[in-house]
Specification:
This protein is mainly beta and 241 residues long. The protein has two helices and 17 strands. The strands form two sheets. Strands 1-6-7-10-11-13-14-17 form an eight-stranded antiparallel β-barrel. Pfam families: OmpW.
Length: 241
């Protein structure tokens, strides 16, 4: 009797780990909602003055730069399993608003402005273990398109002193780019239909920021290349249908 009871307990433990339904099998679709934390590893090249009133200058100002700060946002993902182990996923989030801080000689001004980052991504993932397994780690590789909006320089003290022209106005624009996405993570099936997941992604992203400073009849165009290279975590809850 004791032997039979032990066997029943062992069988129950195996079923609890493996589950009874193929929750992440070929043909399954999962919609996930969660929290993105976007953590840039940013740095910028020194500011280069390109032109004054259209006249080429090409002068670089040493020990100047900026960095992008960490931001949080809400994210959404749709996943389709083509096989028991291979899935495709489309990921998008509400564009996070990043503060931009000065570095080097610009560090004294603190926050220079802000920018919103749009980074939808398409990934292919390989999920380890059997489709019935509750805990399934995975690795993924994909591509994303990054662009920026609402670029603004809001620190008038910085604008006044950047080129020594009090009362000047400065605007910013940035380039967009295609970038690879490297991804690892895991899902855990709470029930046959509900999941919790955590993933970590790395995106090697950089952009050219162009600054246009206007003071009366004088127009100064300058630029810097900003490396962002964010690590992005995604803590989410998913539903299979």
């Amino acid at each position: 009797m004791k032997s039979t009871y032990k066997k029943m307990l062992a069988a129950g433990a195996v079923m609890a780990l493996a589950g009874t339904a193929q929750a992440q099998s070929a043909g399954s679709n999962i919609v996930s909602l969660g929290w993105f934390r976007v953590m840039p590893n940013s740095s910028a090249d020194p500011l280069t003055v390109d032109s004054i009133n259209g006249r080429p200058v090409g002068v670089t100002r040493p020990n100047t730069g900026a960095e992008i700060e960490t931001a949080d946002t809400l994210g959404l993902a749709f996943t389709h399993f083509f096989t028991d182990n291979i899935s495709g996923e489309f990921v998008i989030g509400i564009p996070p608003k990043h503060d931009v801080k000065g570095t080097g000689d610009f560090a004294q001004y603190g926050k220079l402005g802000s920018v919103r980052q749009w980074s939808p991504a398409l990934l292919v993932k390989y999920h380890f273990f059997d489709a019935k397994t509750k805990f399934r780690p995975y690795v993924g590789l994909g591509v994303n398109y990054t662009w920026f909006s609402d670029e603004s320089i809001t620190n008038q003290n910085f604008v006044d002193h950047a080129f020594g022209i009090p009362g000047a106005k400065m605007s910013a624009s940035t380039d967009s780019s295609w970038n690879p996405v490297f991804n690892i993570g895991a899902n855990y099936a709470i029930t046959d239909n509900w999941f919790v997941g955590l993933s970590v992604s790395y995106l090697p992203v950089s952009t050219r920021a162009t600054l246009t400073t206007q003071a009366g009849a004088t127009t100064i165009v300058s630029h810097t290349k900003i490396k962002i290279d964010p690590v992005v975590t995604f803590l989410n809850v998913g539903y299979r249908f």
